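Support case: zinc ion complex. Customer-provided input:
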Amino acid sequence: MDTFFLLYLGAGFVLLFGLWFYYDWRDGHIHDAQRSKVIYHCIKCSQIYTGPYQSEECDCPQCGFTNGRLRF
Ligand SMILES: [Zn+2]
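Agent response - structure generated as follows:
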């Protein structure tokens, strides 16, 4: 009876930690994806938008004007 209870408790902890690690890992990947995006600012309509990773220019989704990469 006691052994069964310990096994049950252990399985619960493993499941909890597994989920915790999974969400931590998944969130880390989401943040990486956002960080690698290139931010563009449209000089025609002032729209702020993001383009693909390491792209040098990207079309504005609002007016279609091609903007260069924003440099700080
Ligand atoms: Zn625009």
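The longest strand covers residues 38-41.

Case will auto-close in a few days if no follow-up is received.
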